[in-house]
Every structure is written in structure tokens, then in C-alpha cells.
Design brief:
Blueprint lengths: L1 H12 L7 E5 L2 E5 L2 H8 L11 H24 L2 E7 L7 E5 L3
Antiparallel strand pairs: 1-2, 2-3, 3-4
Helix pairs in contact: 1-3, 2-3
Length: about 100
Amino acid sequence: MALAIMIGATLGAAAPSQAATTYCGNGACTLYLNWNETNSLANWRPPQLNIPDPRLYAAYVALAAAHVFIAKGWVWRGDCVGFTINIRPWATQGMFGWRCR
């Protein structure tokens, strides 16, 4: 549920990143980070979002911190990071690596 809130806040409250690519449809959204964004996340520099509610911002920072170590693994392999969320609980969702270079 926290992931759904954070992705909703990311897609709805922030200006979209020029480097990330987002695909949404059929109840699912997938966000592909490019190499620079993935590398920044792996180095404890998550994208800065304009989230006015301090509780949502704190949740975003905690969520980003939890994904730093996973992002480090993907960077080490030379891949980028993507996120998928789906309204159907049984559908595939979460963080994944993808070949970006």
C-alpha cells in the first residue's frame, strides 16, 4: 500500500522526470529509470520530489532508502531499475532490473 501511495504521489504531485519513462494502462504503471537516475538512487540520491505533505515525503524517503541496496546490485551488474505497480494484487509488481546500456 505504501508503494501505491508513493507512486501515486510521484506521478501525480511531481513534475515528471525528463529521463524516466512511464507506461500506464489497464490498471498497471511501469516506470523505467535511466542509467543516471539508477546510479543516483544507488548512491543515496533519490529523485527530489515536490511532496507538500511531510508524512508522505517521509514515507517517500524511507521507501527510497529501502531500495538503495537493491539499486546498487543492479548498477553493479550494469543494468537500470524499473518499478511496476498494478491494481490487481495477484499481478506482477515491484522493482526489477532492465538492460539499459
